[in-house]
Design goal:
The complex is a heterodimer of chains A (116) and B (109). Helix content of chain A is 0%, strand content 52%. Chain A is mostly beta strands and 116 residues long. Classes of the chains: A mainly beta (116), B mainly beta (109).
């Protein structure tokens, strides 16, 4: 099946710093990538949808300037949490879909962000 | 407002039991319904359903969609401890995916 690699798996940072999370589709071209946030024992909350080469579409309530998303190529999207604060601590998961398997999302392994 | 509701929230069974997980939805511009299994980290894809009444099967897992009544079920027969996970249901709209809160299944040996 399609493989999505997410890096890093876990990051601990100080409050006020920025953190970049990478999401790569390894064996397919991801026309669309999605970024989710998941709180303990809760479902995935969609943060934004990004299409290669265009600006990301953010969900209501998600701060664009805080969560910067770049989808520079068909295999790479990045999420940068700017000026991170403890309340940003969470599990962030990316997923990718391609035209070859329309409608199906393939997920990365997730990144656990801990902001001290 | 679009929503996906899963039930039960949590379920504990013994190995060998059969379980049925439910997912109901209210979604505009519905395209498909997807089931995922989430263990420790990322969800893994199980099924995508687009047509009513057509059962999809994979080993001991099967799923069916009812587009008239707006729900889907996921069946797991002869459960094993390795089936313990959170099962997520999601719907795909025109540009949006909505996930339910999941059903946490624990299978006891």
């Amino acid at each position: 099946g399609a493989v999505v690699s997410q890096h890093p798996s876990w990051v601990i940072c100080k409050s006020g710093t920025s953190v970049k999370i990478e999401c790569r589709s390894l064996d397919f071209q991801a026309t669309t990538m999605f970024w989710y946030r998941q709180f303990p024992k809760q479902s995935l909350m969609l943060m934004a949808t990004s299409n290669e080469g265009s600006k990301a579409t953010y969900e209501q309530g998600v701060e664009k300037d805080k969560f910067l998303i770049n989808h520079a190529s068909l295999t790479l999207s990045t999420l940068t949490v700017t000026s991170a604060h403890p309340e940003d601590s969470s599990f962030y998961i990316c997923s990718a879909s391609s035209v070859l398997a329309e409608g199906v999302q393939y997920f990365g392994a997730g990144t656990r962000l801990s902001v001290l | 407002e679009d929503k996906v509701v899963q039930s039960p929230l949590s379920l504990v069974v013994h190995e060998g039991d059969t379980v049925t997980l439910n997912c109901s939805y209210e979604v505009t511009n519905f395209r498909s319904l997807l089931w995922y299994k989430q263990e420790k980290k990322a969800p893994t894809f199980l099924f995508m359903l687009t047509s009513s009444g057509i059962e999809k099967k994979s080993g001991r897992l099967s799923s069916i969609l009812d587009k008239k009544e707006l729900f889907s079920i996921l069946n797991i027969t002869a459960t094993q401890t390795g089936d313990s996970a959170v099962y997520l249901c999601a719907t795909s709209g025109t540009y949006k995916y909505i996930f339910g809160t999941g059903t946490r299944l624990k299978v006891l040996a």
